[in-house]
Specification:
This protein folds into 2 domains: 30 residues; 63 residues. Helices cover 69% and strands 0% of the residues. It has 4 helices and no strands.
């Protein structure tokens, strides 16, 4: 019975050995940098501008929350689209109400100017 699990155990052991070996090689032969450079944020090779304590604009958070909400809407729409024929008219009406509520929220957000990036 346990013979079936030997390849999995072998793979786990091999992955652990490789991870430990690469970590040790990095510690032994890796380049050492001074602490002043390690404390700076890395921004794609560009020297950082300002400090990390600068406040992030609220507009950024509004766009991020909107993206998450509309992404979740798509997550609900895709499974419905797969079984739409089986649900019939009731499923169509339920999803229409769902989309209508999302659209009302979207147009409210547009009206308030939450998506304007000025």
């Amino acid at each position: 019975m346990f013979e079936d699990f030997y390849p999995i155990l072998f793979l786990l052991a091999l992955a652990t050995i490789i991870a430990v070996a690469l970590t040790l090689l990095s510690i032994l032969f890796g380049r050492k940098t001074s602490l002043s450079k390690k404390g700076q944020p890395y921004e794609c090779g560009i020297d950082p501008v300002g400090t990390t304590k600068d406040p992030v604009p609220v507009k950024f958070f509004m766009i991020a929350i909107s993206f998450i909400l509309f992404d979740i809407e798509i997550i609900f729409l895709l499974p419905w689209a797969v079984v739409a024929r089986d649900l019939g008219m009731f499923g169509f009406a339920a999803m229409s109400v769902f989309v209508l509520v999302i659209l009302v929220g979207y147009f409210y957000e547009l009206g308030k100017g939450a998506l304007n990036w000025d």
